[in-house]
Write a structure and sequence with these properties.
homodimer, mainly alpha, Arc Repressor Mutant, subunit A, 2 domains, three-stranded antiparallel β-sheet, 8 helices, 62% helix, 8% strand, DNA-binding
DNA sequence: CACTGGTTAGTCAAGTTTGAACATAGGACT
DNA sequence: AGTCCTATGTTCAAACTTGACTAACCAGTG
């Protein structure tokens, strides 16, 4: 399974635990997860089972709400917590030039890391993006001087550059919001992320 | 199979036809396709077979180069040409707020459409992106005033907005390049896209 | 000549994703 | 009361993706 799916499902259980599949399903759909992450409902249940088999999630029992169908709830194991932080940290400190899914994952799950690290990681991204943009200019030069690479391959790099600039601006903006206290990060007192009202 | 994989493989056969799988494999990897499109070599061969079974591609025979292994070459059928243009046109005239794969596909394959349409489509995208950004501000307002949606859902929209702005700038820039004659579009005299020198 | 490592061209089994379908219950409407 | 639609909670078969692996050939080296 893709890293994205595992990270999203593990992160979502971590935030809402103990939690059952259908709640995750609805919540993730409100985040438009199906539009950017190759995740449909079946993928969520498959990920729950796979992560459970790998020891990262554990079943927390079954329960019912009123006369509704019985549901299985999950929680993150200690191994799962370690793996979640590992994946998040890897994502935070790595800039992908062409793939936008990792940074989309950050917008929803970086709060499991500490505020100080996230700020440092975002600052690093701002710098790393500058380096990648500079690197892209050399790729573009190579395409221009190549007699074998189609000229339009330039546009892959041009678009990636334009988008990285947008992402860089977001990183600056969100850093400012985080610095001034927005959101609740690991280790901080504060309410758990609110359950959706329809739970 | 995902629309992206079908479009990429059909588009690549269209550009390089008649062409065998290994050439596509190497060519697409130089375009970093594996980094943003869930396409590894096995997916290319699976797509070739699936598109052939659907009638969009036809085997063009087998050939050998020197003592190398025998290879099967493919070409696009008339149905395939129709489908390719349909998918490309749909992609060109549709702005996705969260998914960046479609516009990445455009950078490599929009040359199968006519120059005039591509310019019109890009202009439309510039406008459509403005609308989506405006729409995103209302989503952000909703998140802020909601007592049930986690506050950080705002960041999904903020990042999408920042990235759309970058894409919008690219659309403007590439439009200018296209308007002044860069690249070769459908119906225009000009060399086929150059084969990679290692063919 | 023999060996080693790289290239060509494609295959393959396991895991993942998709787009419903399924079973049950509740609510609205006639 | 009966019917239809929606909600809950999950499963499922088919198709797709992954990350090698395979077989044959080529080039370089000792």
């Amino acid at each position: 399974m893709s890293t994205t799916t595992r990270l999203v499902v593990l992160g979502a259980v971590h935030q809402f635990q103990p939690v059952h599949g259908y709640f995750l399903r609805r919540e993730l759909m409100t985040w438009h997860i199906d539009e950017w992450a190759n995740i449909q409902p079946g993928s969520i249940y498959n990920a729950l089972r796979s992560l459970k088999n790998d020891g990262y999630l554990a079943e927390n029992g079954t329960e019912t709400a009123g006369n509704r169908p019985e549901r299985t709830t999950y929680r993150v194991t200690e191994e799962g917590e370690v793996e979640l932080l590992r994946m998040l940290r890897d994502t935070l400190w790595t800039v992908e030039v062409f793939d936008t899914k990792p940074v989309m994952v950050l917008t929803s799950f970086m709060y499991a890391l500490q505020r100080e690290e996230v700020l440092a990681g975002l600052l690093h991204r701002v710098t790393e993006i500058d380096a990648r943009i500079a690197s892209n200019t050399y790729h573009i030069g190579d395409v221009a001087s190549s007699s074998s690479t189609p000229a339009y391959v330039r546009e892959i790099f041009e678009l990636a550059t334009a988008r990285l600039r947008g992402e860089q601006q977001w990183a600056r903006d969100v850093s400012e919001r985080i610095r001034t206290g927005d959101y609740v990060f690991a280790g901080e007192d504060g309410d758990r992320p609110a359950r959706a009202a329809t739970d």
